[in-house]
């Protein structure tokens, strides 16, 4: 993100990026619920300048939609905090107020059933802004969720996330919307992990952000936004292999890195005896793998069109791509030396 | 220690795949590794060669030998990739990666690692089918392969982790001391292997994957990937014995009756590879029947039939590819009268097809006799089904032989060479273990 801001001659946005990072830290490390709310508001206010670009009408519209939905959620959150302080004097987590607070935080994250703004907005953002939206913006609502959650409500939301994330992506051709629905599905996994422990969530979140970063940087460098663009590009062999490995890893197939967080979460699911929920996790994961493989058809088939009008800039700068593929394949095996 | 050295030998063959002019050297190294592996100390009654996370058992030993053998023969059969310069470096890497995954599947002590490598072996197979196959339908075939297998094996992951949470151990050896008799666990554990075998109702991926795969993909699918299901069943059924005794009749009946239907369906096939694929399903149906009966002859018969079917089907796919490379068609209408042009190849067609129909002195015969013994001892009525399956397998093997070799040849042929030494060697190496191992079967049929 720094690299993008520096190279696009847009370094006045660096200030807002710094405030964005700082706001998340305010939110998750505050002693009082008001501090959390303040952090969320500063987060919203600093993200809007990052995504809006006054020369592009779609970008302005996107930032307006983002502002409206997120501020609605923030106001809701503030209101529920005040009700909790004034009316309820207990620490019980399974009541109606926790449902309302969780709902407002879920809406900030883009989780089902409040997800309708999320694919809309990612369609209007560039790849790097999408990366921030899908990874960094989820940190503070997740952690705030872990402070006061309603278990039954969240399990229902997890099921909705999984099903909507998997079935919603079946009819999409835009790569950004596909990654948005996969992000909604992965939110289901992350909400469950944060119900277990924050450490587990951090593990899942870090691996997920690393995989999303590798994919989004690949799409950003190739300037690809739609599925038909995957077939007419002069992708040479290593780029194809990297795409293949990253998507299979994100789907959670062994032997790639993405299998490990899913395996550990299934372990905790079965320890806590959520048998039917595990089955839903598995089956929606299958549907997700289906549309990932649809994206990587072009990498499976080795011969490609060599179009003369497509200029591939990446021929000389392969080291990052090779490194990321190598990490994805070998990290499972290397991690056995650490953990086992 | 003894098992890890082979793992490292295979890992260090990977850089060798990417150097220039190393195609045949990799194949020779795999043969070399095969001969080294055969010299391991073999103790038939227990687990041996145990080191950090590896072990070797009589079943694992035979199946690892089979996988190394088939992988080296895969490279020998794919010379056309090397000649046409079609990504043969990555092909060699794929083959060795697949061999590493299969080797690890058969030799790790931990049940979860077994699952990990079981799933990991799917990815190179998928790459082989979609990357080096030659028809547009291969995408659909790859989808079917991946999703049928994943649909079965994700509940297997759930079952394995449930076992870990209950028993606090994942070592395969210790599982025989426990009794987990739960119906849902039983279904989740064995469904993956039944899909992989494949059993009749979930067999649809197999003909598609075999037809669309290149010769190397077909060889490895028929040779080893189906046997992963059998191996998994043999490992997993130990701790589910009571449920097995109550419920196994379902799978025996489905697979035997299904085998009968599939054998009859073989007579309707026009595509050579499709016929061989359906015959694989019929053989595997008998294997499932033998394992599910859970008597000693059943296990022995299914193990022998797994090894012999791996060699025999793989050889038949090589033969089908030899015809395909010359006539560019797999159809029975075009591949007829081959005896007029390639009489020596017709010898190999006959030898491998006679092994397929379980004629003596092939190892298939011993497997089928043991399976008939075990299934008839379980129930007399299975005599009828087994009789029909064996009869039809003889029927379609002779049907295939006669249609391809006898009769008038297709007039649209131009010219092709009769049969290179490489192809004869390939077929000889398939046939020789198959028909000579019958002379000393005690190392695969006496377990205790």
TrEMBL record, chain A:
The protein's role, per its UniProt record: Core subunit of the mitochondrial membrane respiratory chain NADH dehydrogenase (Complex I) which catalyzes electron transfer from NADH through the respiratory chain, using ubiquinone as an electron acceptor. Essential for the catalytic activity and assembly of complex I.
Intracellular or extracellular location(s): Mitochondrion inner membrane
InterPro entries xrefs: Complex_I_Subunit_2, NADH_UbQ_OxRdtase_chain2, ND/Mrp_TM
Gene Ontology cellular component annotations, sorted alphabetically: mitochondrial inner membrane
Membrane-traversing stretches: 66-87, 99-118, 153-171, 178-196, 202-225, 237-254, 274-297, 318-339
Domain named NADH:quinone oxidoreductase/Mrp antiporter transmembrane: residues: 30-287
EC number(s) reported in the record: 7.1.1.2
Family the UniProt entry places it in: Belongs to the complex I subunit 2 family.
Catalytic activity: a ubiquinone + NADH + 5 H(+)(in) = a ubiquinol + NAD(+) + 4 H(+)(out)
Topological relation to the membrane, as annotated: Multi-pass membrane protein
UniProt-listed GO biological process terms: mitochondrial electron transport, NADH to ubiquinone
GO molecular function, a single term: NADH dehydrogenase (ubiquinone) activity
Keywords assigned: Electron transport, Membrane, Mitochondrion, Mitochondrion inner membrane, NAD, Respiratory chain, Translocase, Transmembrane, Transmembrane helix, Transport, Ubiquinone
Name of the top EC class for this enzyme: translocase
Superkingdom, taxonomy of origin: Eukaryota
Annotated protein name in UniProt: NADH-ubiquinone oxidoreductase chain 2
UniProtKB/TrEMBL annotation, chain B:
Pfam families in the cross-refs: Oxidored_q5_N (PF01059), Proton_antipo_M (PF00361)
Record keyword Translocase present: yes
Catalysed reactions, semicolon-separated: a ubiquinone + NADH + 5 H(+)(in) = a ubiquinol + NAD(+) + 4 H(+)(out)
Transmembrane intervals: 52-75, 87-106, 112-133, 145-164, 184-206, 218-237, 249-268, 275-297, 303-324, 383-404, 424-447
Signal sequence bounds: none
GO BP field: ATP synthesis coupled electron transport; electron transport coupled proton transport
Gene Ontology cellular component annotations, sorted alphabetically: mitochondrial membrane
E.C. number: 7.1.1.2
InterPro entries: NADH4_N, NADH_UbQ_OxRdtase, ND/Mrp_TM
GO molecular function annotation: NADH dehydrogenase (ubiquinone) activity; NADH dehydrogenase activity; ubiquinone binding
Membrane-related topology note: Multi-pass membrane protein
Subcellular locations according to the entry: Mitochondrion membrane
Keywords carried by this UniProt record: Electron transport, Membrane, Mitochondrion, NAD, Respiratory chain, Translocase, Transmembrane, Transmembrane helix, Transport, Ubiquinone
Span of domain NADH:quinone oxidoreductase/Mrp antiporter transmembrane: 110-392
Domain NADH:ubiquinone oxidoreductase chain 4 N-terminal, residue spans: 3-105
Family membership noted in the UniProt record: Belongs to the complex I subunit 4 family.
Protein task: Core subunit of the mitochondrial membrane respiratory chain NADH dehydrogenase (Complex I) that is believed to belong to the minimal assembly required for catalysis. Complex I functions in the transfer of electrons from NADH to the respiratory chain. The immediate electron acceptor for the enzyme is believed to be ubiquinone.
PANTHER family xref list: NADH-UBIQUINONE OXIDOREDUCTASE CHAIN 4 (PTHR43507)
Entry protein name: NADH-ubiquinone oxidoreductase chain 4
Organism from which the protein derives: Bombyx mori (Silk moth)
């Amino acid at each position: 993100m720094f690299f993008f801001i520096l190279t696009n001659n847009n370094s006045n946005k660096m200030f807002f990026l710094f405030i964005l990072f700082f706001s998340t830290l305010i939110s998750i490390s505050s002693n009082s619920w008001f501090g959390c709310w303040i952090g969320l508001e500063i987060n919203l206010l600093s993200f809007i300048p990052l995504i809006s670009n006054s020369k592009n009408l779609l970008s302005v519209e996107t930032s307006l939609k983002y502002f409206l939905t997120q501020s609605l959620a923030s106001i809701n959150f503030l209101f529920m905090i005040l009700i909790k302080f004034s009316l309820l004097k207990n620490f019980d987590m399974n009541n109606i107020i926790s449902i309302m607070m969780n709902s407002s935080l879920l809406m900030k994250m883009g989780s089902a059933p409040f997800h309708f703004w999320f694919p809309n907005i990612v369609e209007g953002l560039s790849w790097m802004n999408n990366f921030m939206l899908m990874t960094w913006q989820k940190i503070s609502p997740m952690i705030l969720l872990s402070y006061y959650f309603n278990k039954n409500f969240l399990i229902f939301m997890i099921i909705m996330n999984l099903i909507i994330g998997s079935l919603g992506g079946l009819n999409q051709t835009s790569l950004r919307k596909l990654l948005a629905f996969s992000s909604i599905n992965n939110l289901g996994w992350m909400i469950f992990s944060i119900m277990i422990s924050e450490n587990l969530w951090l593990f899942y979140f870090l691996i997920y952000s690393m995989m999303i970063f590798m994919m989004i940087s690949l799409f950003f460098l190739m300037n690809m936004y739609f599925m038909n663009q995957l077939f007419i590009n002069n992708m040479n062999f290593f780029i194809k292999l990297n795409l293949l490995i990253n998507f299979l890893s994100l789907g959670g197939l062994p032997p790639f890195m993405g299998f490990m967080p899913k395996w550990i979460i299934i372990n905790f699911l079965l320890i806590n005896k959520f048998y039917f929920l595990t089955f839903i996790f598995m089956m929606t994961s299958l549907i997700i793998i289906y549309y990932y493989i649809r994206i990587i058809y072009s990498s499976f088939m080795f011969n490609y069109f060599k179009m003369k009008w497509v200029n591939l800039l990446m021929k000389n700068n392969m080291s990052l791509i090779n490194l990321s593929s190598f990490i994805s394949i070998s990290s499972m095996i290397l991690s056995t030396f650490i953990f086992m | 220690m003894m098992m890890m050295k082979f793992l490292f030998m295979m890992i260090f063959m990977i850089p060798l795949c990417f150097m220039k002019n190393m195609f045949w050297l990799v194949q020779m190294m795999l043969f070399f590794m095969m001969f080294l592996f055969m010299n391991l100390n073999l103790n038939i009654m227990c687990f041996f060669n145990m080191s950090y996370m590896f072990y070797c058992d009589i079943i694992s030993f035979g199946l690892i030998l089979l996988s190394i053998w088939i992988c080296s023969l895969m490279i020998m059969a794919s010379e056309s990739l090397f000649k046409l310069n079609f990504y043969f470096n990555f092909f060699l890497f794929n083959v060795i990666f697949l061999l590493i995954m299969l080797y690890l599947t058969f030799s790790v002590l931990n049940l979860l690692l077994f699952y990990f490598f079981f799933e990991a072996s799917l990815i190179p197979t998928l790459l082989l089918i979609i990357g080096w196959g030659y028809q547009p339908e291969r995408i659909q075939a790859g989808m079917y392969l991946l999703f049928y297998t994943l649909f079965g094996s994700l509940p297997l992951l759930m079952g394995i982790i449930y076992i870990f949470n209950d028993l606090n151990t994942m070592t395969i050896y210790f599982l025989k001391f426990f009794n987990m008799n739960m119906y849902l666990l039983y279904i989740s554990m064995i469904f993956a292997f039944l899909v992989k075998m494949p059993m009749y109702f979930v067999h649809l991926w197999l003909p598609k994957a075999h037809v669309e795969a290149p010769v190397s993909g077909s060889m490895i699918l028929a040779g080893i990937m189906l046997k992963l299901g059998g191996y998994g069943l043999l490992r997993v059924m130990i701790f589910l014995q009571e449920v097995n005794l109550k419920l196994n009749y379902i799978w025996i009946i489905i697979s035997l009756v299904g085998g009968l239907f599939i054998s009859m369906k073989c007579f309707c096939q026009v595509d050579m590879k499709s016929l061989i694929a359906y015959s694989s399903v019929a053989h595997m149906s008998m294997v499932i029947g033998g394992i599910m009966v859970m008597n000693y002859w059943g296990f022995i018969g299914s193990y022998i039939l797994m090894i012999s079917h791996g060699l025999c089907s793989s050889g038949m796919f090589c033969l089908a590819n030899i015809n395909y490379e010359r006539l560019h068609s797999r159809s029975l209408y075009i591949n007829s009268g081959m005896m007029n042009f390639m009489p020596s190849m017709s010898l190999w067609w006959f030898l491998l097809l006679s092994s397929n129909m379980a004629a003596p002195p092939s190892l298939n015969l011993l497997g089928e006799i043991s399976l008939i013994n075990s299934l008839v001892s379980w129930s007399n009525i299975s005599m009828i089904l087994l009789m029909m399956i064996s009869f039809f397998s003889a029927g379609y093997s002779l049907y295939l032989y006669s249609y391809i070799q006898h009769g008038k040849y297709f007039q649209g042929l131009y010219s092709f060479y009769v049969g290179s030494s490489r192809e004869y060697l390939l077929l000889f190496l398939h046939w020789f273990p198959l028909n000579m191992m019958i002379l000393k079967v005690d190392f695969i049929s006496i377990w205790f």
